[in-house]
Amino acid sequence: MNREIRILKTTLSLLIAAILIASINCKEGKQSPGPAVENSLPEKFIVLLGVAQDAGYPQAGCEKECCKVYHEGKEEKKLVTCLALVDRKANKYWLFEATPDIAIQLKNLQEYLPGTDYSPDGIFITHAHIGHYTGLMQLGREVMGTKEVPVWAMPRMDSFLRSNGPWSQLVSLQNIRLNLLNADSTVRLNQSFKITPVKVPHRDEYSETVGFIIESDKKKVLFIPDIDKWEKWERDIVAEVRKVDMALLDGTFYQNGELPGRDMSEVPHPFVEESMQQFSSLTSAEKLKIVFIHFNHTNPLLKKHSAEKKKVKEDGFNVAEEGMLIEM
């Protein structure tokens, strides 16, 4: 665990070094990154490519203080929540979510790969809300024109993509190849990794919603970016956290009342304040497993030095940052 936390804390400095050293061109083919990255990265890891809610940060049309500070140069842009599972030895990687920021995220990911590669070896989709699947459009003939990128989706999500344009065109032109997921049924990616979808309650207008258990021969990571409330889930989230080595959990809103003038029951999520209370029985080591992610533009955890971020960390939990690494 201590080594894992050290990796999380040092990744941003590694990324800065990598940007200065690495040289990436737009031509096809593989190219080695700089020695700082090559020598420092673990062989297998998850890297966080985004931490914001579906609309990103700043949010379109927002003139409130939360976004005003960005336009004043006091805060940085935050990309929509996405993970990459990387196996450097096998020279493969898989995305979890295809976000509206996929172009930037694929570019940023190159710094972590053994060679230039903009075509994922697979994409896992949690559900049909805009921040989680709309990046698939960048794989089409108007942009990347990929060839049969595997996309794993649950039955309703699969049907949604096959039956609605422009996603159906990705299928018909074989830019993507849909693979059906079933809840609690494990998919083995290679000798190193296996993935298990777990169904969670959420606003399922177009598809069901899942989280994922991402597992290597050494580690288990639970990823649940969206859920209505922990108590609505048939599973005990405290017990689920105890089963894994790291849990990336829905932190969309920090507290009730964060959306003035709007009934927040219309967009139910576990408030971070609620979750910390829910997890209060965990030991200090168990609390360190929890990384809150998927922050709405109003959430003070997006800010560099907010009092709320300080409190979350003082209470023993972690806050997701772009560039964080979890060794697998």
What is the strand and helix layout of this fold?
Elements: H1 2-21, H2 35-40, E1 44-50, H3 65-71, E2 82-87, E3 92-96, H4 102-109, E4 123-124, H5 130-133, E5 149-153, H6 155-163, H7 167-172, E6 176-180, E7 187-188, E8 194-199, E9 210-215, E10 220-224, H8 237-243, E11 246-250, H9 272-278, H10 284-287, E12 290-293, H11 307-314, E13 318-319, E14 325-327
Parallel strand pairs: 3-4, 4-5, 5-6, 10-11, 11-12, 12-13
Antiparallel strand pairs: 1-2, 1-14, 2-3, 7-8, 8-9, 9-10
Tell me about this structure.
- With 328 residues, the protein is α/β, with parallel strands linked by helices.
- The chain has a seven-stranded mixed beta sheet with strand order 6-5-4-3-2-1-14. Strands 7-8-9-10-11-12-13 form a seven-stranded mixed beta sheet, with helices on one face.
- Helix content is 26%, strand content 19%.
- 43% of the residues are buried.
- Helix 8 links the parallel strand 10 and strand 11.
- It has eleven helices and 14 strands.
- The chain has a single domain (2-18, 41-327), classed as Ribonuclease Z/Hydroxyacylglutathione hydrolase-like (Metallo-beta-lactamase, Chain A).
- The longest helix has 20 residues, at 2-21.
- Mean pLDDT is 89; it is low at 1-36.
From the spread of the alpha carbons, the general shape counts as: globular
Q: Largest sheet, described in full?
A: 7 strands, mixed
CATH superfamily: Ribonuclease Z/Hydroxyacylglutathione hydrolase-like
Could you tell me how far the N terminus lies from the C terminus, measured between alpha carbons in angstroms?
A: 12 Å
**Strand line-up in the sheet with most strands:** 6-5-4-3-2-1-14
Helix/sheet category: alpha/beta
Overall pLDDT level: 89
Which fold name fills CATH's third level, the topology?
Answer: Metallo-beta-lactamase, Chain A
What top-tier CATH class fits best? Alpha Beta
Low-confidence stretches: 1-36
Number of helices: 11
Strand content: 15-25%
Fraction of residues in helix:
25-40%
Count of separate structural domains:
1
Kindly provide the radius of gyration, computed on alpha-carbon positions and rounded to a whole number of angstroms. Answer: 19 Å
CATH architecture term = 4-Layer Sandwich
In N-to-C order, the SSE pattern is: HHEHEEHEHEHHEEEEEHEHHEHEE
